[in-house]
Amino acid sequence: MNSSLRKVSFLIITIIVLPVVVFSLFEIGNLRQNEKIIQDIYRNQLNAILYSINQYSDDVISSLAVRIENSSSEINSPAKTDLSATIKELPSVKGLLQFDNKQKLISSVPESCCDTIVLREITRMIEQNKKIITQLKTYLQGGYRKIQPVVNPSGNLQWIIFITHVRNKELTNLLIIDPVKFISQVLDPKIQEIAKGKFDIAAYRAGDELPFYTSNKKFKAAKIDEREAFWLLINYRMGIGLKEITIADLTSGRLKRNLIIVGIMDLILLFGAWLIFRNIRKQVELSQLKSDFVSNVSHEIRTPLSLITIYIETLEMGRVRDEKKVKEYYSVILNETSRLSGIVNRILSFSQIESKKRKYSFAQSDLNEIVENASMSYGYTLENRGFKYIFQPEQNLLPFKADKEAVTDAIVNIVDNAMKYSIEIKEIIVRTGKSEKHVFVEVEDKGIGISEKHQKYIFDKFYRVTEMNLANKVKGSGLGLAIVKHILDAHDGRITVKSKPGQGSIFRLSFPVN
């Protein structure tokens, strides 16, 4: 793992840190660039403002499309009435036509917006743009509604196509918009907000030098050179220019400002490189943990399978004739089968947790009863391994809401963990109790304990304590405590641990009673 991290560190330094340093030195040496470079930068900034206006116009029509879809979906009210009210929200909208998959007109709002001649042209246009309509449907099926303008050969009104999904049907919608009103009435507030007295923004018809709209009525908009096309309005363009200032005026204080910007960018990029390294390091560690997990689980599964195979083959060949011995063999097979089942169940439970598919059924429960039922799951194993088991129930515990099966799993996992790490003194004490607003169950062992530096990680998935070569001495998957933590979180409870190396551990599972 250390070798991998060294390679990653070298790559990050080579790909990110070194270029950042070179870039910074280059920028500092070229802060006094000529006016043309400054002008190019400023032109890009102006284009970004024009882009935001285009984005806003797209958002306005997209929002209207959503409201049209919602209005069309209303079953208990007249659809045309709803659609009429919806499109009137935008004063520049002249009408809306809706077609089914066979290009048959099913709705026209208002009805007067579509005479026979216009309908024929629209139908022809839809037929010619089948490929575009198919693409729009594909976008919608992917969760994204795209708005597409199309050419209107017969006039100045703009046609915009989008798809809506109404009552399990895909409708082709044709929105008819007056471009001049759309710009001067709908976009004007946004343009004024962007301009803020610093810019002059104008709108032009294609081929015209003089604008039909300007954000500042006194401005000579003909001198604007920076122009971009409207996304949704074919043959219409908008331009932007700086108000009452020259580009040369912007160079004042540029040296100091650029030094600050370069410094901030360096910090951001270096911080980003550090974040990348930290995340990659975590992924490398997680990958190593997963690899260890596969190895450990394979070993854990192989051991009981080998024992089961050996004992079954022995019994099958009839080599054991003593009834007590046969019974003992069956007992071992049953024990190893239960162990194997526990391993598989733990993996399946963790898989459900990871995929967020584990469901809980909460009901009023008695904690003492749950602990007693859980003891049936690990009682034989405790006895077989020579453990002394003590249960100290608190009387008159308040009932609490819990998924009995999940809480049982949590207790069994804690006890199983206690057995694994109790090497010399084989004694486990399980006690229940209550505090002001909680009931709890504690599992105490006399095992090897957990150092403080490991305690904050033991509830992470795949994590296993590696001190004193424990990872090799004590086999496990590293999932048990992660599963317990998830179960406690689902119950709004908490799990705590008190432990010192050589002095055993006490795990407490607390559940709210209110």
Describe this structure in words.
The mean pLDDT is 79. This protein folds into two domains: 33-252, Beta-Lactamase, CATH 3.30.450; 359-512, Heat Shock Protein 90 (2-Layer Sandwich), CATH 3.30.565.10. With 514 residues, the protein is an alpha+beta fold. Helix content is 52%, strand content 18%. α7 packs antiparallel against α8 (323-354), α8 packs across α13 (480-490) and α9 (367-384) packs parallel to α10 (404-420). The strands form four sheets. The chain has a five-stranded antiparallel β-sheet. The chain has a five-stranded mixed β-sheet with strand order 11-13-14-16-15, with helices on one face. A four-stranded antiparallel β-sheet has the order 7-6-9-8, with helices on one face.
Q: Would you give the CATH topology of the largest domain? A: Beta-Lactamase
In the predicted model, the low-confidence regions spanning at least 5 consecutive residues are none
What is the CATH superfamily label of the largest domain? PAS domain
DSSP helix count?
13
Main sheet specs: 5 strands, antiparallel
Strand and helix map with partners:
Blueprint: H1 2-29, H2 35-73, H3 79-87, E1 93-99, E2 105-109, H4 116-128, H5 130-141, E3 148-150, E4 158-166, E5 169-177, H6 179-195, E6 199-205, E7 213-214, E8 226-229, E9 236-242, H7 254-316, H8 323-354, E10 363-365, H9 367-384, E11 388-392, E12 400-402, H10 404-420, E13 427-434, E14 438-445, H11 452-455, H12 470-473, H13 480-490, E15 494-499, E16 505-512
Parallel strand pairs: 11-13
Antiparallel strand pairs: 1-2, 1-5, 3-4, 4-5, 6-7, 6-9, 8-9, 10-12, 13-14, 14-16, 15-16
Helix pairs in contact: 1-7, 2-3, 2-6, 7-8, 8-13, 9-10, 10-13
